[in-house]
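Hi everyone,

Forwarding the result from last night's run.
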Amino acid sequence: MSDTSAAQTRFEPESTYKVLPQDAFNVDIEQQTLDEGHLLNDTVRNYSWSGVSVIVKDHKTKEPKIILHNIDGIVGAGEICALMGPSGCGKTTLLNVLAHRDAATGAKVEGNTLVNGTSPSTGAFRRMSSFVEQEDALIGSLTVRETMHFAARLAHKNALSKTERIRRIDGLLDSFGLRNQAHSIIGTPIRKGISGGQKRRLSVASQLITAPKMLFLDEPTSGLDSAASFEVVSFIKEVAKRNNLIVIASIHQPSTSTFQMFDKLLLLSAGKSHYFGQVDGVAPHFESMGYAMPFHTNPAEFLLEMMNTDFAADQSSAIARLDEMQKFWAGSDSAVELSKRVGSMPAETLVDIKPSKSNLPVVVMSLVHRSFIKSYRDIVAYGIRIAMYVGLAVMMGTVWLRLKADQADIQPVTNAIFFGSAFMSFMAVAYIPAFLEDRATYIKERANGLYGPTAFMIGNFLIGLPYLFIISLLFSVVAYWLSNFRPTAGAFFTWVMWLFLDLVAAESLVVFISSLFPIFVVSLALTAFANGLWMSVDGFMVSPKILNVFWRYVFHYIDYQTYVFQGMMVNEFAYRNYTCGSDCQCMFQTDLSSECLVPGQAVLDQYDYHTGNTGKWVGILLAIVLGYRLLGWLVLWARK
């Protein structure tokens, strides 16, 4: 059976698909609406790449492995180009190279990428381009308009007036058909929002608010059905044509109607180029090799079937056929002409986009404002935690209910203090999912040059403070009075202070570990282990006076729970006496034994705790919080 007939039997005809006229999107760019005027590209005429190769070291053999080999291409203003090929062909790697992103860990990248025939600096390239991730890193508790609003504020740092910002947002919402969903929630795990296609269009629109000249899209139709895919690509196509933008997208297996909307196609397999040119020219190219495309067949499926050797019954003949097709393309007139053209691009003066002035306070306040909206709408962030802590307070207050000022209750009081501090900080692991979501948004926005780790870390710290204080206060109002700790206002608010600092330090630890290991299960396990370690060496399980010297000098003094526990102990015992019971047999022999009393200071002496060190302990706690935040910032800064 011939390859053509074999391919015919493997494809079923599409029941329905749109056949688009060639001039369907030939929009006159001079007719763009006033609201879209900021998007018009009148500086970048073309983007070309020549001899792009990527080489990595194979983890098993330790030998060099070629991911991409000598790839050429050129895309002009107003064109939309598809990078297509089977899984593992290198299209995502190529897209990252073209977008000036890291291709792979330890990869060696060769070749040239030119804008108007010149090589721009990294900063200039970032300012004229934008990248849309495969996953929609959107904040589900925001509305569509709010997402666009914060994207504009972060991109322009108050460089735009409110009127201009609204005008741009309205123009983009209209262009991407999102005007009717402007006030709809994007969607959270517990609250349904907009559709998948609308989310993808919003992801693109939020990047266009920065008015890029080039747009890179990683699998823009991934996870969408054929109708939603067509919807997304058609909006992108229309905006690109109307505003003269350059769009390059990696795409896996589009429908016929979606495939026809692309102007150019770069077909990859095994890291090599098998075709580059107009979409309507790919069928004649393969037909000239004897692989005619069957009628009523999705062209994308046909091409991917030809390029994929993973499931071939005869691997050797399939690989040989693929090599033959690649050599045919490499020796074709089109490939030779392409190589000549990209190798002799005339250099033009490249007008750099003026960067937005750095305005850290504006960016921080924008992030805080956005996080505030998220936190009160998304109960997963703090609502569930507040309910959890209140439940924990009720449990603690009823287990250690109405403890008396008697020596028999000294140990239960000590146990309650440990529980109130250690387990509260342990439950900070509940913040991990919310932080990982924030981090995903930060990674996307940093890659597009909106802000850096400093603004993110400051904003994340500030937004957490009021909620942590509310949690501390609510927990204390319930647990403190039910357990009958020292009944004075000063003692109560001192307890609240220690609990608040405890939670701030615990959340800072979560931020550091989750930044270092941004995988939920790993972060959860490591944070739980760290809190278990801190509970073991904080002075309750084993008195600091007899704690093993290794644990004492390596971990005890950097344990934030150490200072919270001893601060709470001093707050409770330093100013309170306990009765020795009806038989007057005091457990500690002191000057008050004759009065059948045990001074709380005697309990503190067993732990070697002293009064008058509150300011010192608070200072150490703040230093630990700062240390965790700085370590978290360093991790975020290093992972560019």
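The longest helix spans residues 453-482.

Cheers,
N.
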